[in-house]
Fold this sequence. Notes:
The chain is built from eight helices and 16 strands. The chain is α+β, with helices and mostly antiparallel strands and 284 residues long.
Amino acid sequence: MRQVYINGSYLPESEARVSVFDRGFLFADGVYEVTLVLDGKLVDFAGHMARLRRSLSELEMPFSLTEEDLLKIHRELVRQNDVCEGLVYLQVTRGAADRDFMFPAQDTPNTVVLFTQKKALVDNPLAIRGQHVVTVEDLRWRRCDIKTVQLLYPSMAKMQAKSRGADDAWFVREGYVTEGSSNNAYIVTSDGTIVTRDLSIDILHGITRAAVVECASDLQLRVEERPFTVHEARCAVEAFSTSASGLVNPVVRIDDAPIGAGLPGLVTQRLRQIYLDRSRASAV
Length: 284
Ligand code: PMP
């Protein structure tokens, strides 16, 4: 059975318990991070922890564990579960308190949970076949830059994608693509420029996105950070998404429009490989 971390203890998952008054349960008052594990090591750990700090601070949520504490816990859980390739989830809520919209006292202990998932993420069949995405109106709250556990709308969008025979949904606000249901969205134009939406409150500031933008510059590829329309995406020569779980993941169809030749593109494949090499080399 899988071992999880909960508030200072490592326990079998069936023994871990959270209060019925946890604010994560009552108000979605919590944030999370997902870190990729390759060769038993953590990819972009510092980036994930910096984003966690930012999410906590935007929500004025007190939190006392240090980055060093969190690194030790991540490594210990990877070790206990013998994860060679997969993901570590870190979930933090404002803790348990009698139900009240007002935040509880500053010294209310957080609920901190970590769990692992063993998964073959590098040899992902979708990366060979390419994803079919459908566009869905972006009806999420206006602080998509904070990584909250409020994931109901993305979950509904994924279900809608599935019912339409697709792999994922790309959100659209006022005609422009914001991001995927759980990833950042990119297109490659006919002159080879990679276009992805600029950072704002409209999207999550992806840790993989930052790494891939760097990889693209190393390859001397042009990157434009700006909004792009659904029409522009349908006419693109390549499209892809990025996330800690999907790495660099080709998109070969948007709604009923095949992208380029309807196969994973060369820029996408190169970026996936470079991103993997870089991640393996820098993992901790
Ligand atoms: N956007 C959204 C909405 C996400 O949920 C995720 C994945 N957590 C991402 C983008 C990608 O972020 P990252 O590269 O840090 O996994």
